[in-house]
Amino acid sequence: MAKFEVVVFNEEVRQCVQEGERHKVLSDDWADLHYLEINANDETEARSRIQKKYPADLGYVIESINPVLNSKFE
Predict the structure, then answer these.
(1) Which is nearest to 65 in space by CA: 1, 7, 2?
(2) 3, 64, 68, 69, 70 from 74: Cα distances, Å
(3) How far apart are CA 12 and CA 14, in angstroms?
(4) Which among 63, 47, 72, 52 is positioned nearest to 10, based on CA atoms?
(5) If DSSP codes are grouped into helix, strand and coil, which group holds residue 44?
(6) Nearest-angstrom CA–CA distance, 17 and 12
(7) Angle (CA) 8 10 12, round 5°
(8) How far apart (Å, rounded) are the C-alpha atoms in residues 73 and 31?
């Protein structure tokens, strides 16, 4: 299984922050990018798993998904 870095933010929160308001549920930091790591067989599976946890219909946007390259220090 491979490791992927997924970058996510919440568009609804970003819009609220730009308007000087607060989202009714989420903290303001969701306007910023969140870097998450997930194990998956491939990018498609990584995207599917992240979308279940951070669904688009709740305002979450996947900015990018990239494989994490193994370091010789690991």
Answers:
(1) 7
(2) 13, 24, 12, 11, 7
(3) 5
(4) 63
(5) helix
(6) 9
(7) 165
(8) 33
Cα separation, 17 vs 31, in Å, equals: 7
In tens digits, the chain (74 residues) has pLDDT values of 999 999 999 999 999 999 999 999 999 999 999 999 999 999 999 999 999 999 999 999 999 999 998 755 54
DSSP state of 70: P
Neighbours of 53 (CB within 10 A): 11
**Which residue bears the tokens 């798993």?**
49
